[in-house]
Specification:
Layout: E1 13-18, H1 25-37, E2 48-53, E3 58-60, E4 68-70, H2 75-79, E5 82-85, H3 103-109, E6 114-117, H4 122-127, E7 135-136, H5 143-149, E8 154-155, E9 161-163, E10 167-170, H6 173-188, H7 190-200, H8 227-234, H9 243-249, H10 254-265, H11 269-287, H12 292-298, H13 304-315, H14 319-326
Parallel strand pairs: 1-2, 1-5, 5-6, 6-10, 7-8
Antiparallel strand pairs: 3-4, 9-10
Helix pairs in contact: 1-6, 1-7, 6-7, 9-10, 11-13, 11-14, 12-13
Length: about 325
Amino acid sequence: MSGTSAGRPTPRQSVAVLVRDGVLPMELGLVHQLFGTARDPATGERLYDVRTCAPRPGRIRTDADFPVYAEHGLEALERADTVLVPASHETDESLGPGSPEGDLAAALRSVRGRVASICTGSFVLAAAGLLDGRRATTHWMSSELFARTFPRVTVDADVLYVDEGAVLTSAGEAAGIDLCLHMIRTDHGAAVAAEVARRTVVPPHREGGQAQYIRRPVEEAGLTSTSGSRAWALERLAEPLTLADLAARDAMSVRTYNRRFREETGLTPMTWLSRQRVDRARELLERTDHTVDRVAAETGFGTGTSLRQHFQVVLGVSPGAYRATFRGR
């Protein structure tokens, strides 16, 4: 996490988007849109500088009917706080260990900040050796090929994104939005990320462990989902909700509800509920002067001790440390 003490300006972070021939324009655009929209709540100043770079500056083909122009070369990667690699379906799945060779692989390995990929951009990171011994994801349609090609990477094709600290990977294009918002939230807190989501008209937070798609045959698509109980629970986070309460709301047995919920979100109902309560607690710690005990009561954790335990498990910090980082914003 990075933050700012009250009264001091936030240092602007640099984001380099590495494009290659065949890049998906939507993925390039979403990075510029999301990071470029992030603003300091106190001053309105931009929080990120976003630059497009390429192995060779100039005109870059896309997988659409128009090119894009990359003003910067690989030198932008070394200076960047964050490097994002969108997919290029033209070349990604042909990559293997040891490729891309030469300057591109060396530039990626020299990045001092974090490196992230969207969709099959993960093939580029894996080929450069950045994912060896790490957990990663990619688009579910490419996951089997990815696992065969890069056996030293632990592939999880059932999630939206994976955060391994210095290296992050995400699934398809829409999951790239979730990943960018996750990184903005990590850098500047839940309030800034929520404002970016509102401006862009996208959901403010989808948990990274949520499933990429619902594993259910087409003929069952009309079955009742768990979305109703999830919306209902979000309005009642302060209440002592149980698994039986949630299942009853969607008129399912507990067993059926638990199975359906995991299919749709990749999480158990109570794990999902705990994560929603942590997210709500983050907002209250950032936006209010409530005591930790009051935040715990308003988010359903009951006591400050329980809130501290959940914060440590989910975020690795205490509520007090989180507030000290982001409250000044």
